[in-house]
Amino acid sequence: MIAALNDHKAALRREALRLRDSIDPKTKKTKDSEIHKNLFQTREFTKAKSVMFFASIRSEPNTLDMIAAALTLNKIIVLPRVNLKERSLEPYIITNLFELVPGYMNIPEPHPELAAKCSAEDIDVIVMPGLAFDKSGGRVGYGGGYYDRFISGIKGQRPVLAAVAYDEQVMESVPVMSYDQRIDMIVTESGVFRVSAA
Prior knowledge:
The chain has helices spanning 2-21, 25-40, 43-47, 64-70, 146-152, and strands at residues 50-52, 76-83, 88-94, 100-102, 108-110, 116-117, 125-128, 132-134, 139-140, 160-164, 170-171, 185-188, 191-194. By secondary structure, it is an alpha/beta fold. Strands 6-3-2-1-7-10-12-13 form an eight-stranded mixed sheet. The termini are far apart. This is 5-formyltetrahydrofolate cyclo-ligase.
């Protein structure tokens, strides 16, 4: 059963990546702008005091522009740093994009000597990466489990989990394991879909 689910997830990852990679650059730029606008207009983002982003790479929705814009707002902006030894994410507060350096898998992450470490319990909204999503909150990530472990380790009230994705990445259903964290909302170029009242 678990092996079959893992195979299904692997196939879904390949298909979602193929769909995402196939978006032409001009269309991608337009979609990125709409995702940015839609996220920033949500009540969850507007009222959040602190927001954790991920730094986008390759064909992911462009979050670097979102981070640059968010840094001009009166919010605490957090990015994760991968601790490979512990297989965990460590949240750091950044004040500008120059505090990011290439890290795990060449993903930009906070330089520990330039950024300040913070508590996961202080984060109000986590902007999530992923490959495939469904409208009941299912999420298929890249397979490392970093975000699932990070979120499950947060004590007290869980932050709002907001996935940013292209319409092409939203599927009818995706396989979800017991340890997978369900997202609260999906933000695409078409709009915002709330899984539950976040």
